[in-house]
Amino acid sequence: MDKLENITLYNIDKIIIIQKFYKKYVKLYIFNKNFMNYYKYIYNNIIKYNKYHNILFIKCKKIHKTYSPSKNENKFIFGNLIQLSVIDFLNKIFKKCIDLDELHTFGSEFKNDCILFLTNNVNFYLSIKCKSKKQGDIIIINKHSNNINYLNLLNNLITIVIIVENNDILIINHNIVDKKYIKDNEANVSYKSSLITYMYKFQKNYIIHLETDDNFKNFLEYEYNNIQPINIYKILYDKL
Predict the structure, then answer these.
(1) Which of 121, 145, 163, 211 could form a disulfide with 168, with the two C-beta atoms 3.0–4.6 Å apart?
(2) Could you give the number of structural domains in the chain?
(3) Are the C-beta atoms of 163 and 172 separated by less than 8 Å?
């Protein structure tokens, strides 16, 4: 009898673990799978909050001018500052947006950068990438092991791509990307530059253009050209 009770208790524990797993992961998987059902709402909300949309790209222009990724030492700073700008933007115009890196005591998130909450129950993991121009591949995941099928990890991946030069936001749903636009090598998995070209020609509905306001226009006219590049490493060195 004792053994039977132990087995029953053990099974209950397993059931509880499975239930927790379902609530935490399977539910989120379903939401991510149906992301495109909510795309129109997301698109319309970005257009609605044009003021914050403009502020986002003012920040992106400032970051690009200050920490140009044309210098290799600036690439990490450029990418991370724009990532933070996008998360702040989404947090202002939707229920909330959580920076996944802030949930780590060390290191950073492997694949996604934030969780966007449209409601308390509808949320999506998002990856955020940025480019100065339309040209060039987009690295979507760096490889850390040869024993992992990284392509399988990308199922349901939703990527927000900021194109600074064009003031555009691109939304890429990995599940509908043709394999010919995916580059898989020993170091990483990337979207080829030709995918961006294809989207500008045939998937314009997944590109959100900025409608510039007076604030943005004044920034370009009176402030942008006066921004000087910053050598962050020299500043840090001088403080030693």
Answers:
(1) 163
(2) 2
(3) no
